Amino acid sequence: MSRIIDLLRHGSVQGKPALYGRTDVPLSPTGHSQMLSHLAALRTVDKIISSPLTRCLSGAQAISQQVSAPITTLSSLQECDFGDVDGVPFDALRSQWPKLEAFWQQPAKATLPQAETLNAFHHRVLSGWQQMLKHDARHLLVVSHGGVIRQILAHLLGINWTQPALYQQLAIGYASLTRITIDDHPSALPVIRYIGLEGHEDTIDDA
Question: Which of 7, 17, 68, 91 has the most CB atoms in a 10 Å sphere around its CB?
Answer without folding.
Answer: 7
